[in-house]
Specification:
Distance between the termini: 20 Å
Strand content: 15-25%
Helix content: 40-55%
Low-confidence stretches: none
CATH topology: Beta-Lactamase
CATH class: Alpha Beta
Amino acid sequence: MLKLWASDREAFRVELEKIARGAVSDVVTAFANKERCSGGWFRYLVTTPGSMWISTPVQIGTLGADETIICRRFAAEKADRLGKNPEHWLSWQSRDPESGKWGGAIRIICGTIAFIFSISGLPELCDEAAMLITGVRAGLLSVAQAREIAVISNNRFFLENNWGFRH
């Protein structure tokens, strides 16, 4: 995926969205509460020395009409907040539920490139798990790195499931 980012941004977007859709589907299945947890808004940012690229948000799965607007806003807020806190790996680290700031975004560093993946629509630890799975399946994070990051938020939902990863 890193080579794809460097050579074809549109192909990268299409492939990343496909991977994120699969991750969200797996999380929804594992969460086993489809009435409450069936999708969300996905957004990603990529920064390189001297530039930033922000994706157009994309809906993954289904959401109620009321959830659509708020989840799209939360996905953007999580990514933006994580971008403003370069020492953080997770939006969980700056969460403030009383102010509507939640977990669900992750940072991935690949050399001089930083990726921020964000989703909103699932319970926040499910959002985070879906983004960690996306990072691993995209080949941007190792399973060990994803587990280290999940420990920060004590994300047992991610840590206690295998997600089909080969160890």
